[in-house]
Amino acid sequence: MDTTSIITRTRALLVEHYVFPEVAAELDGFLAGRTARYAAATTPAELAELVTEDLQSVNGDRHLRLKHHADEVPEGDDAASEQQMRRELDLAMGGVPGLRRLPGGVAHLELAPHLFPVELCADAIAAAFTLVSRAHALVLDLRRNRGGDPHTVALVCGHLLAEPTHLNTMYHREDESYHQFWSSPVVPGARFDPARPVYVLTSATTFSAAEELAYDLQQLGRATVVGETTGGGAHPGAGSPSTRTWRPPSPRPARSTPCRARTGSWSA
């Protein structure tokens, strides 16, 4: 285990890509001063845990993690995550692992473990919303959802909102561009009656894009959120291999929402 190379590459990725340059500089200096701590790690898992703890210590960004993979990470950004994601997609029935009827004409719809890329899960979500469209109320269960694609957030909101609505704007540091996300104006399948109540269930596991979905629906007055405080991951991430078995994610876009009185996000 070449600890020095792993830390050097991790620091370089932070400085190059992290969405907040001033935080990246602070983290770079912090990691540089922790070499003795990292040198004491005896296993890859221990090193990953130590570095992740330090990465998240400055501004609490839980997207910042150093991961070790037992198998080699394929070339290309997020290749390892994509492999795992496709396995989880199949096991979770396209991201809709649970749908049932509760007493009183209430539908319980679980989206988990991720909000998968919209091109992969749109059919499953459309089928689910077509089934629940006849319900008198909807319980949207995000307690096991760890985040995913903002385009899928927009799709789900499209099934629940009466008209296209601005959800958030992402800032990309690399080219200083902005990307707006709006709820889908046209959705496959049926739209849930905007006059019928929606309740969103959350837990400490609810993270990232799943948090955004709960937050958007709550702030727009479309849903009542019930449950635990969510994980706190507002800024999306992307992984970059530092070696063939190590991958430190580095959040690149920053998200702001029109629902707040000030520019920011639910974890700002």
Task: Please summarize what this structure is.
This protein has helices spanning about 5-15, 20-30, 35-40, 45-55, 80-90, 120-130, 150-160, 210-220, and strands spanning about 65-70, 100, 105-110, 135-140, 165-170, 175-180, 200, 225, 245, 255.
Describe the structure.
With 268 residues, this protein is α/β, with parallel strands linked by helices. It is 35% helix and 17% strand. It is elongated. The strands form three sheets. The chain has a five-stranded mixed sheet with strand order 2-3-4-7-8, with helices on one face. Strands 6-5-10 form a three-stranded antiparallel sheet, with helices on one face. A two-stranded antiparallel ribbon has the order 1-9. It has helices at 3-17, 21-32, 35-39, 44-55, 79-91, 118-132, 150-160, 209-219, and strands at residues 67-68, 98-102, 106-110, 137-141, 166-172, 177-182, 198-202, 224-227, 246-247, 253-256. 38% of the residues are buried. Helix 1 (3-17) runs antiparallel to helix 2 (21-32) and helix 6 runs parallel beside helix 7 (150-160).
